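Worked example 2:
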Amino acid sequence: MTRRITSAVNSVVANLSRRNALLWLGGSGITTAFMVGTQKEVGAQENKDLKLVNPPTLYDATRNGYSHIAVTPPRTRTVYISGQFGSDLQGNLVSDDFEKQLVQAFKNLRFALQAVGAQPKDVAKTTILIADYNQSKLIPLGREISNLWGYKPPANTLIPVPRLALDGMLFEIDAYAVIPEKGN
């Protein structure tokens, strides 16, 4: 019975505009309960992998390069990757150019993930710090996020800051990843 109701609710919501779906969902506590039940049901079925959730009651964050929620599966190790920046192997900035630092920081993040046996799809959450922030910096950032995660970006917080740890440092990204335990 629950699956039939869930299927019917999902079908109706899928055929409504986002605004109408929100109005429809907001009008009934029962409907909202069905939606919550739907998300729990999906979570129970897909518990082997990191689950990125973008509920229909929130705007589509994936258009801005992140997901609203990341749910980690059971029997996983959590990996915390410190802020990666546009550095070479000696820790020197590769350039004083924002975009070059950004590209190198994402390369360094990939190297850090590989070092612990993780893949980009294992990243649950990132935090991005941008010095001297302005919206034009979102274009190259969006490109790098898309290159690494495609249409399934992790949860993220972007924080504009007046400066970072080193003089001339313009970009930093840290990450939390989950890796399935051996034998899963």
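Confidence is low (pLDDT under 50) at residues 8-46. The chain is about 40% helix and 25% strand.
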